[in-house]
Amino acid sequence: MTTSAEGSLDGDTLIAAMLAALPYRATEETRPVLSGITLVLGSPLEVAAGDGFRMSHQALGLSFPLEEKIMVPAHSVVILGHVFAKTPRTPPTTADSLIPIIIAKRQLHMALTGDNRVRVDFGRTASVVINLIQGNPPDFLALIPKGEPVLQSQLFAPQLEAAVKRVRDIAKDGSGIVRMVFADGKLTVSAKGEEKEISATMDTLNTQGEPERTALNHKYVLDYLSGKQGIIILSKHSDTGPVVFQYQNSPRVLIMPMFVQWGDEKPAASDKTEPEPEAIEETPEVEPEEEMESSLAEQENGEEEPHPEEEIAVAAESAGKKRRRKATP
Fold it and tell me: CA 177, CA 200: separation in Å to the nearest integer?
């Protein structure tokens, strides 16, 4: 097969990054360009994945001699991980002790070949040829917030996980939403149901930009925190933009916030002359922020005319921000 570009890469770094991005891809078969892992080739090589509500991104200290974006199917990533785990290390030819052999990086050779295919060679023991996902890859890099955050907080991951688990049962009755309020060096995690409200307060290690607040889906937060034992950094750049999570050398994860009615917010002014009944605060209606999903949908469809489902999402977004339920006379 004709080779358009090829190069040697650190397999330990690349395979680990691709496997770490798998939980954040879309699982629906109707969204093929979001169901795989996107590799942004060039220097540096970057790995990204997203499902419209969450996104994973990691820039690696690797380079490839061609600037291009390719989409690797999720099943192929699993196969690459399996074959790589079974591949023996190739010891340095000049090793004079066991230490260089033990810490030696496992190199792999990657080549873009044929018609939309990639071949990965694991030394001389195995080769995997992958049919890439066809289409235009989403521009994940454009969704990453730029500039200084309005809020940045360092949190101990097990404490945050315990706080979210404490309120999740009530959160399930309130569209799965957990509210986070940062003030006075503390984080208050709360949830509201139809007739109940619960909260948990924890200390932050260091917070800049408080007081601030956000609301997130509890399942997305718990999925991210699972297995993390150290300090995470939570950053917020705007009220409608994604909340960014960073943990050590793992991928940076973006989670879109949820629109909620906070207790100190006044209902929107009405154009009618007659006064309307007050909004019911106990069971506020909420809408997820659609910015990331609509941006990825536009990139996926590549059409100027919106899809009917997107029109519904946009209409729901604009109406959902200040939607109120009228009281029964």
Answer: 14
Average pLDDT over residues 219-236: 96
Which one, of 10, 14, 23, 35, lies nearest residue 245 by Cα? 23
Distance of CA 264 to the CA centre of its chain: 30
Distance, in Å, from the CA atom of 218 to the CA atom of 215, rounded to the nearest integer, reads 9
CB-CB contact of 153 with 206 (8 Å) = yes
Residue with tokens 């399930």: 172
If 0-12 CB within 10 Å is exposed, 13-18 middle and 19+ buried, where does residue 26 land? Answer: buried
Helix (H/G/I), strand (E/B), else coil: 281: coil
Contact in structure between 265 and 259 (CB atoms under 8 Å): no
What φ, ψ does residue 93 adopt, rounded to 5°?
-70, -20
Name residues whose C-beta falls within 8 Å of residue 239's C-beta, 6 or more positions apart in sequence. 257
Q: Is the pTM of this model over 0.85?
A: no
Q: Is 107 helix (H, G, I), strand (E, B) or coil?
A: strand
